[in-house]
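ENTRY TYPE: paired fold submission
RECORD: A
CONTENT: sequence, then structure tokens
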Amino acid sequence: MRPINSIIEFKQIIGRGTRLYDGKDYFTIYDFVKAHHHFSDPEWDGEPIDPEPQKPSDDLVKGRSDDAVKEPKDDYVKRSKIKVKLADSKARTIQHMMVTSFWHPDGTPMSAQQFMESLFGKLPEFFKDEAELRTLWSAPDTRAKLLAGLAEKGFGYEQLAEMQRIIDAENSDLFDVLAYVGYALPTITREDRAAHARIHVNSHFTVKQRAFLDFVLQHYVSVGVEELDQDKLTPLLRLKYHNSIADAVADLGKPEEIGKVFAGFQKYLYETVA
């Protein structure tokens, strides 16, 4: 699944779902990247309406207490997991999925476990160890090449984002998906990564550079690693400086210097965090 880049595109997606026809009385949107947080428009859409509580049927409640017919709680859902042991003999935990979003090249469905096993087998073609993964992921240009290479092998953004959800790492980074699958490393939230990076940012950059990088980190925590792509630099500068690139240059230096700051600080996000 690729990122949704505008409110217009988001509304088009919602609009397609609301088209009616005989036999269709509802639709479901899977918003893995939390686009609704960024494109919320209550003035147009209205405020969200809570779903009506469903009443249990007489047959369901007959002879049972009220507690017995309550909806499953989150802790019950979280326990619905399976362990996958890969070729390195280390176990990974994934959610038990009744419906798959993964597919073989021939169009047949693939289970989450099969996808994880396939990804695990292909990762050594892209990096030899954890240290090389961190190095590649720490720079926008090499990260983009890595993601493009993975996509060519059938492990695109949409599939990796789905795996991110399945391993309960939606608040983490796509880096954590690769590190978890490849080396069974524990996932780290983007918020924790940003907090760790700020320690180094405060020591290595000027006051005005720190202010901009803190703005970048806020977007990273809220949206994800795609906010660190090189093509996001200019939009972020425009947001921070209210469309005045001249003000950005006055604060941060020449464009090439700004580019070095933007790319250079990212290594601190992917250092090993104790």
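RECORD: B
CONTENT: sequence, then structure tokens
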Amino acid sequence: MKLTVSRQALLGALQAVIGVVERRQTMPILANILMQAKDDRLAMTATDIEVELQSGCEAQIGMAGDITVPGRKLFDIVKALPEGAELKLALKGERLSVQSGRSRFSLSTLPAAEFPVIDDIEATQTHELPVDVVHRLLDKTYFAMAQQDVRYYLNGMLMETDGGVIRAVATDGHRLALCQAELGDKNLPSEQVIVPRKGVLELQRMLGDQGSLTVSMGKNHIRIHSGDIRFTSKLIDGRFPDYQRVIPAETGNYMVADRDTLRRALQRAAILSNEKYRGIRLEIRDSGAKIMAHNPEQEEAEEQVEVEYSGEDIEIGFNVTYLLDAIGAVDNESVRISLNDANSSCVITVPDIDQSDAKYVVMPMRL
């Protein structure tokens, strides 16, 4: 393998894939990046077995070939070289020579044949979607995913196609976030896949700001093509909870408040909440909402917020972090919180629920 490539092009390709390369690996080959040089193009692939990222750049190929090299070391070398630099890469025996100006580096390698690559994912559905739509689906729901829950199917995000709609749903058992978008084809069969947490976070990082991408869903993998980048993730093999049963039916008890005013009041009250349980109490009446918090040091906070409220008087407790996450995800000047009673979950949306493509459910707390 022998090639010449610009620093800018190589750095861009490395930045796209380096996120899945961890410094400490159980398998040495997973600390490496697969480099494949042919047809005036250098392809780069990185994986941690669960998530695979592939990118590439134009290069002058003197001799085609493939090899794996330590990903972080190569990335750090290329990043440290001056802008506008040109790199000459050549495989010499079991070492990759990297030369740029007066700088010369020699990196260890491992055979390309040992690198685990996901080839065909046997896609059952493929969709063309705008990048901003996928960004929105992820950004409005990712925070509700569980972290290291024994219910492994919660440690990820449900992606569902159903009747011309694609839907993202995440829950940790205490709260739920849902966002959906229209698909062009109304006659698609229903399908559900669970993308692991790391895959969701890596996908958020790699997506651009505009353009379109291709989403392919298979039985065991999901694959997304966006420009020069190809993202592939294993799916979580499990059954996601029936989230529709978690969403309470609408009642006449709901309040509408200025989103920023309510958010700031909750943030202030949270300062004196119990650091472990983060509980706050809401008293909602026609006259307004009162937010109260206290902690084991007998310190107390109280906030009064003007709201529009129709329904019965309610006193209810919530984890303030969950409320703040949900209210923060609502992109509207006002927020609507629907409540049934002190023992039921609340639903947070925009005031005009018919126009809402996202909703959030937060379970109550006993205080």
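NOTES ON RECORD B: The longest helix spans residues 259-270. The mean pLDDT is 94.
STATUS: closed
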